[in-house]
């Protein structure tokens, strides 16, 4: 299993794929690696930990964060003003997650979906877990 910070995301969701590109552009120190929820490696982690498949997931130093907790922890690592959004952690998690769930429920309706997982550009390819890279060759 990969060490460090791994973001699992819905690889066929336009919004989720845009968020991955957003994070990559604001993560010059390359803290984050990525795997679509549809990948074999992500499915193994999901099955072993019971992760909600309708959620962005951050796996960090043996801990698993989902929904708003994952989003806030990701934002606090990015360059620019994005770490300031971590202050939303002061809002109770059930309220944050209700807002997250509302967007997650409607994201494909609002933003659409892809027929297949996003294919990373050559510049992004090394940011994706090896199992997913093997499928791109």
UniProtKB/TrEMBL annotation:
InterPro entries: DCC1-like, DCC_oxidoreductase
Pfam family name, one: DCC1-like
Superkingdom of origin organism: Bacteria
PANTHER family attached to this UniProt entry: DUF393 DOMAIN-CONTAINING PROTEIN, THIOL-DISULFIDE OXIDOREDUCTASE DCC
Protein name: DCC1-like thiol-disulfide oxidoreductase family protein
């Amino acid at each position: 299993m990969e060490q460090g910070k791994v973001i699992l995301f819905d690889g066929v969701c336009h919004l989720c794929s845009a968020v991955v590109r957003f994070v990559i552009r604001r993560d010059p120190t390359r803290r984050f690696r990525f795997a679509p929820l549809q990948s074999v490696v992500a499915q193994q982690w999901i099955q072993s930990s019971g992760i909600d498949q309708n959620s962005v997931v951050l796996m960090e130093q043996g801990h698993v964060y989902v929904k708003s907790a994952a989003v806030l922890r990701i934002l606090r690592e990015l360059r620019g003003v994005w770490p300031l959004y971590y202050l939303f952690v002061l809002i109770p998690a059930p309220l944050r997650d209700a807002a997250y769930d509302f967007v997650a429920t409607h994201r494909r309706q609002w933003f659409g979906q892809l027929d297949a997982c996003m294919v990373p550009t050559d510049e992004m390819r090394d940011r994706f877990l090896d199992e997913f890279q093997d499928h791109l060759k």
